[in-house]
Amino acid sequence: MTPSRAAFGAILGKDLRSELRTLQSLPAMALFAITSFVIFRFGLDRTQLSGSLASGVLWATLLFAAVLGINRLFVAEREEGGFDAIRLAPIDRSVLFAAKAAALLIYLLTLELVAVPIFALFFLDSAAGLLPLVLILLLADLGLAATGTLISSMAVNSRARDLLVPLVLLPLVVPLMIAATGATEPLLAVGGPGYDRFGTWLTVLGLYDLIFGLVGYAVFDFLLED
Amino acid sequence: MIDLLAATPALPLDEAGKYVAGAYVVFLVLIVVYVAIMAAKLQRIERELRELAGFAEQRKQEEEREEVSA
Amino acid sequence: MYGKGLRPLSIATVAMLALSLSLVFFYAPLDADQGFVQKIFYLHVPLAIVALMGFVVGGAFAIAHLRSGNRKWDAYSYVSIHMSVIFGVAVLVTGGIWAKASWGHWWVWDEPTLVSFLIVFLMYATYYPFRYAIEDPERQARYASVFAITAGAFVPLNFMAVRMAESLVHPRTFATANGGLPGEMMFVFLCSLATMALLWVTLVKFELTAKSASGQVKRLRRALDAPAPGAGSRIAPEVS
Predict the structure, then answer these.
(1) Which single residue of A154, B10, B39, C156 has CA 20 to 30 Å from A51?
(2) C101: closest chain B residue by CA
(3) What is the pLDDT of residue C81?
(4) B:C CB pairs within 8 Å
């Protein structure tokens, strides 16, 4: 195994173990999502959601919950000298980006594992649209993980840390949200799941993932310079 | 041209004129505001240069005084 | 020496501006659909194109900064983005005026280009708080360059996504404005475009010159060991 692969595994493993032990981000993200659903129920005065409304509520909530996790992504690195460690190690520094993005991806998927079924329980008539939704969730999470890791790594070294992530991240993920909600809306339609432009939206998501994954990987080195 | 003007639908000319004028006015205002901000910067630079020139002259005088007394 | 070409550049800009304005109001034919209101097009669209190109240029300067490590590229990047944001304000306001005159609403969500532009504008508006939240000047410059590059990659993607999101029901009214422009209109449009581009370059050079002058003042201050004035609360990109 190459040193980079080993480092990737080590960082990812450390992150996941740490999260499992301390349970800092995940419960907060999940609880936030569920509470948001409740707020939406009262805010919109609806007990059933479908189509664009369901899609919007789901994705907005997932996004804001994700921001909670993204805010805390690099806190351990900053406080315990993880950045210095990676600077000293004789490996490609972008490995840190890849490992952290992978960790964030896993957190997001775990969040959705909890939040989406509860969303369906609260608001949906049928679970028929949920299976294709998994594909959208996966692709959107990849993009969110890439961009979120990039922004988080920059924000952690700044003064207004908690403000910066939502501020800078949200406009950046607008195309992602457009594509995700666009694909989800027909899936959650009243008459059963529809697939209008499903392929196109998935392509947009894939494109976003590719571009921001590459950009993040390419520029991460410059972020770590002393 | 007059025939074309007579035939145009949408807003009547005097009303349409206001919007077009408004757009160009916005453009002009933004440019002028920018000039005003740059003028403020220029003023600050002038003030600082004046201060620094005074400081340099003061220092020069002190050095000359020291040379004379030494 | 940043101020070097500034005078001929400004003269050229003023000349082009006068020419374009004259062409718009005295030469360009009247649009059959929108009538006189269409004249806003010659202001709004060139501003938008130049603003977007300015963002791309800002990203290019950012790449130069990261590769060379020379901070002057960062200052160029900052000023480019700054100027494009200002142009962006003009785009959004003139766009709103055009929308009000055409459809009766100050803001419309069905015009994908305008909505995309709004999102891009919001994105770049976060450049300032992002930049100034980072205290170390060198790190600030590096992170800002990363931002400029990321945002540059974001722009085309965003336009594509928003265009796709637009419902197929709504007509693309502005499509007629750009495609199938009659010869005279195209000529006037190109003149306006050149004018706005010149204006952008002139103002960027103007801003860089001012920054350079401030930088020289600081340098002089350091050389004289003079006391610093009340320090600004934020570290801004410098040109020396």
Answers:
(1) C156
(2) B19
(3) 97
(4) 88
- Whether residue A68 is predicted with pLDDT greater than 70 in this model: the reply is yes
DSSP for chain C?
Answer: -TTTTHHHHHHHHHHHHHHHHHIIIIISPPBTTTBGGGGGHHHHHHHHHHHHHHHHHHHHHHHHHHHH--HHHHHHHHHHHHHHHHHHHHHHHHHHHHHHHHHS-S--SS-HHHHHHHHHHHHHHTHHHHHHT--SHHHHHHHHHHHHHHHHHHHHHHHHHHHHHS-TTS--TTHHHHTT--HHHHHHHHHHHHHHHHHHHHHHHHHHHHHHHHHHHHHHHHHHTPPP-SPPSS------
Are the Cβ atoms of C37 and B59 closer than 8 angstroms? no
C31-90 pLDDT tens trace: 877 788 888 989 999 999 999 999 999 999 999 999 999 999 999 999 999 999 999 999
Length of chain B, please? 70
Confidence of residue A87 (pLDDT cuts 50, 70, 90): confident
Interface check B29 vs C, CB under 8 A? no
Between chains, do A168 and C66 touch, taking CB under 8 Å as contact? no
Q: Which one-letter DSSP state was computed for residue B10?
A: S
- Check CB contact under 8 Å for A222 and C66: yes
Q: Which of B11, B30, B49 sits opposite C37 (nearest CB)?
A: B11
Task: Of A24, A18, A139, A10, give the one whose Cα is nearest residue A70.
Answer: A24
